[in-house]
Amino acid sequence: MIGLLVIFQAIALVVASSYNESEKCYYAPLPSIPPSTDNRTIPWGEPTIHYANGTTCCSSLDEVRDQLNTIDAQLLELLSSRAAYVREATRFKATLAAVNDPSRNAEVIQGAVDAAPAVHLPQIVAQVVYEGIINSSVLFEECIFNAYGDDCSFTHN
Questions:
Q1: Looking at beta carbons, which pairs linking 107-116 to residues 24 or more positions away fall under 8 Å?
Q2: 33 alpha-carbon distance from chain centroid
Q3: Rounded CA gap, 80 and 121, in Å?
Q4: pLDDT by residue (tens digit) across 97-152?
Q5: Exposure class string for 57-82: b at 16+ Cβ within 10 A, else e
Q6: pLDDT reading at 82 higher than 90
Q7: What is the per-residue pLDDT across 29-75, written as a single tens digit (0 to 9) for each?
Q8: Residue among 93, 131, 88, 95 at smallest CA distance from 113
Q9: Rounded to an integer, what distance in angstroms lies between the CA atom of residue 81 and that of residue 135?
């Protein structure tokens, strides 16, 4: 997990050093930009990911997708760990109504949105992803709560 954060921070530092108009796309609300009608030669623009060894990513869409697949696998591992802690949190809730804590949910989502620029993550991505994580976590936690009987033993197969 720490390794993934270090990778994101290293990439963010390099990417953040090349400010241009597209940087406005990293902050909420998103700017109103008219749709492009360009027909561009592929690849267009300059690489925005620079590795510590001086090379850049990426020379093909396949290379981009390979890297995204690797990151997606890491995200699944992190989400699995998060779900385990969500399950643990359920044990500290006395009623089903206590499972969903809207003020805590809003705090977590806003914290992610506020922290996003520091790791060069678009705020809209942080907001939408964290809303999905929180909403699905509430559903999971409600299921866990309901799966146990009054004596806190597992009651359903």
A1: 108/134, 109/134, 113/28, 116/26
A2: 24
A3: 22
A4: 999 999 999 999 999 999 999 999 999 999 999 999 999 999 999 999 999 866 65
A5: eeeeeeeeeeeeeeeeeeeeeeeeee
A6: yes
A7: 888 888 898 888 888 888 989 999 999 999 899 999 999 999 999 99
A8: 131
A9: 17
Concatenating the DSSP letter of every residue in 46-60 gives ---EE-TTS-EE-SS
Measuring CA to CA, which residue among 104, 129, 116 is closest to residue 27? 116
Count how many residues are written for the chain.
Answer: 157
* H helix runs in the chain, sequence order: 2-16, 61-90, 102-115, 123-147
- Claim: this prediction has a pTM higher than 0.70: yes
